[in-house]
Amino acid sequence: MQRTLRYLQITEAGAPEGAWMLEFIGVDPGAMGRDAGRRLLDRLLADTSATAGVFRTTADPGNVAFYQHFGFVTLRHLSVGPLNIVSRLPAMGCAQ
User: Fold this and answer.
1) How far is Cα of residue 24 from the mean position of the Cα atoms in its chain?
2) How many CB atoms neighbour CB 87 within 10 A?
3) What is the C-alpha to C-alpha distance for residues 28 and 73, in angstroms, rounded to an integer?
4) Model confidence over 60-87: pLDDT tens digits?
């Protein structure tokens, strides 16, 4: 729990003013591979009223291409203990 709280404190501090922080996103294992995650994120990005968009971090390098598809760009890289974190924000108007 302490490690998670430390991670959140460090990563949320890098969020741009007015951005929403998307901490977790996931789908039921039975829905995996059926574009459920893409539809979920499409809807979230289309419906957001955050003035600076949606801010996302990931410690999983496999997630980078997924978020790039939605127009997220890398803002910075940082390390939190053994985790290498990529902070991302969608380029304005790039949601698919």
Assistant:
1) 8
2) 19
3) 27
4) 888 888 888 888 888 878 777 766 666 6
